[in-house]
Amino acid sequence: MIPGSTRAASTNTAFCRTAGACAPPGVEVVVFDDCAVLPHLNPDDDHDPLPPAVVALRTAIAAASAVLFCTPEYAGTLPGSLKNLLDWTVGGTELTGKPVAWAKVAADAHRGEGAHATLATVLGYVQAEVVVSACRHVPITREMVGADGLVADPAAREEIAQTLQALRHDRDELPAACTLGPEDGAERLRRWHALTDRAAPTARRVAHQLEVRFPPGPGVHAELEALAAAEQQCCAFLVWTVTVDSGQPVLHVTAPPDQPDDIDAIASLFGAT
Ligand SMILES: Cc1cc2nc3c(=O)[nH]c(=O)nc-3n(C[C@H](O)[C@H](O)[C@H](O)COP(=O)(O)O)c2cc1C
Question: What is the distance in A from the centroid of ligand 1 to the CA of 89?
Answer without folding.
Answer: 24
